[in-house]
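Same chain as my last thread, 274 residues:
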Amino acid sequence: MSLPLTASQNPDPAAPILIFDSGVGGLSVLKEVTRALPLAPIVYAADHAGLPYGEKSEAEIAARVPALLGRLVERYNPRLVTIACNTACTIALSHVRAALNLPVVGTVPAIKPAAIATKSGVIGLLGTQATIRQAYVDQLEREFAANLTLLRYAAPELVHAAEAKMRGDAISDDVYVSAINGLRNQPNGSQMDVVILGCTHFPLLIDELAKVAGNVSFVDGAKGIARRISHLCDGQSWPENRPLYQFVTTGDPEMCASYLPQLIEFGFRQIDGL
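reply #2:
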């Protein structure tokens, strides 16, 4: 079980927050974390060698994620770990918390805020195949949306679209139309007024999705994650100078070079290998 982080433990001011994702999806979380904690050093780790997680088995993810995070924690000695990946969290979060002796913040589909926001009583969930089939999502539905209609649709093509967008590649609008129609074409789908972006890659595409979705609002968990991290880091010290941001990938850094122009906008200056 992970230990709670308190101000009395006060780690080294240079100790980073480690944000982990299967690819660049966690940048949507990073954006909110840096708004909440502008002085925090950040290590962002992308498992490009394992992408996409949504097409892997539960056993593969449950074995891969704790092992990778163990290596990352040993190398970077973070004050806190954030798994900014819905698929990894719904499958491996408990395994990671059991393996690491520091706080681990996860992310889950934002069913609760969607249930609060809906006026029609019909909400949609876009996620990976691995995420939408998890029993944990069933539990969230029972707890927060029992009297509502929750439509689910696996849209793995949006993961690839988000990665492509960050590389500067062109993506057809058909990808976004297909994802929205995957929800709308289900029974009661025409009444849907809120869509949960149940993969951290998807908020990177919110402008494109909104353009084809019409009168629908979108929710995701990034702000909630940032609030949780801020709470856990309350009272801790940070570096006096501009924080250091590091981007590491399990893939080939040279093959990932096309991401760099976009990553610079997030504060990164280079891509390193793990």
